[in-house]
Amino acid sequence: MPDDIRDRQSPSSRKGPPMKKKIRIAVLGLGWMGQAHSRSALRIPSLFPDRDFDPVLTVCADTDASRRDRATDDFGFARATDDWREAATADDVDAVWVTAPNMMHLPMIEAATAAGKAVFSEKPIGGKPEQTVQAYALAQAAGVPTGVGYNYLWSPLVIHARELIASGALGEITHYRGRFLSMYGSDELGLLTWRFMLDEAGYGVSSDILSHSVSMAQYLVGGIEEVVGMRHTTIGQRPLPTGAASHYGRGNPGDPTGAVENEDFASMLCRFDSGATGTFEVSRTVVGPESQNAFEVYGTKGALAWNLEQINELKYYRTED
Ligand SMILES: NC(=O)c1ccc[n+]([C@@H]2O[C@H](COP(=O)([O-])OP(=O)(O)OC[C@H]3O[C@@H](n4cnc5c(N)ncnc54)[C@H](O)[C@@H]3O)[C@@H](O)[C@H]2O)c1
């Protein structure tokens, strides 16, 4: 083969830009979100040709053996372990992605920040608010880069809404309505997975999806000063799962059941730092909305409304028109 052709075919002999920095990642929990984020890491090279780093899926920790096999066989992780602490603190890891059930987040964040790793944690940071406060303090003290999975804040029209509000286009903000209505728990044969258990999830929808609504409100209109709320469990018993199960998994009539330990519904009235009022409602057991993460924000000169289910539509009312 002529030398010029060999040069073009052999990556090692190709002259090009210097090697990119490697960011070596540990993923703790390869369920729905662990898989989603790992898939995204694999797509970074093809989506961002001008990047100055390359993600490397170094180690995956999961208690489920079939998920560990998927990690190495299908996602290309260099190794997999059932010991999340080993993965979170390993010398060959730069960044830790926390994608395990909520009540595992704080110990995982604690181990990773103590080892000096950058940490991306799925929401809610804690299954209970006091854990979130602790995790924040740990990250601040360690001074490591951090990120949280409030992914909806990155929707282009949500960013545009924030810019409109900040520009004063809506005038003074007087009222905010947030809601996240999902039907993932609406079937009473839906399995009793970790999301329904206090020791694994912490609170129910307050942690799971009210956290999304509140992060959206804080992003758009600022801090919250005062709240009063109500919680309710709609479906008290659910079929017990066998093995690794998703919260969309179903049991059968007559299966053994266990008690749901946290709330299916939560609502909240609040007052923002600015003096604006707010109302929020979230549920995992309504029928109809698949994933209705939505807001309405009202000002003295206009109003906006957005709903994740129509992600590319932002309704804008202006008094001037
Ligand atoms: N940002 C979002 O929109 C979004 C969406 C869904 C879930 N989440 C969050 O992501 C996190 C994970 O949720 P999910 O839906 O992927 O759950 P999941 O049940 O699909 O996955 C959890 C994984 O963690 C593993 N696991 C459990 N205990 C473990 C341990 N001790 N060590 C290692 N692995 C362990 C399980 O085997 C499973 O593979 C939750 O905190 C959830 O709130 C965020």
Detail the topology: elements first, then pairings.
Blueprint: H1 3-9, E1 21-28, H2 32-47, E2 53-61, H3 65-73, E3 79-81, H4 84-89, E4 95-98, H5 105-114, E5 118-121, H6 129-142, E6 146-148, H7 156-167, E7 173-182, H8 198-201, H9 205-221, E8 224-232, E9 237-239, E10 257-259, E11 265-272, E12 277-283, E13 291-299, E14 302-307, E15 314-318
Parallel strand pairs: 1-2, 1-4, 2-3, 4-5, 5-6, 7-12
Antiparallel strand pairs: 7-13, 8-11, 9-10, 11-12, 13-14, 14-15
The structure holds nicotinamide-adenine-dinucleotide (NAD).
Nicotinamide-adenine-dinucleotide binds next to helix 2.
Structure commentary:
It is a single chain. With 321 residues, the protein is an alpha/beta fold. The chain folds into 2 domains: 3-149, Rossmann fold (3-Layer(aba) Sandwich); 152-318, Dihydrodipicolinate Reductase, domain 2, CATH 3.30.360. It is 30% helix and 28% strand. The protein has helices at 3-9, 32-47, 65-73, 84-89, 105-114, 129-142, 156-167, 198-201, 205-221; strands at 21-28, 53-61, 79-81, 95-98, 118-121, 146-148, 173-182, 224-232, 237-239, 257-259, 265-272, 277-283, 291-299, 302-307, 314-318. It has a 7-stranded mixed sheet, covered by helices on one side. Helix 5 packs parallel to helix 6 (129-142). The model is unreliable at 1-13 (pLDDT under 50).
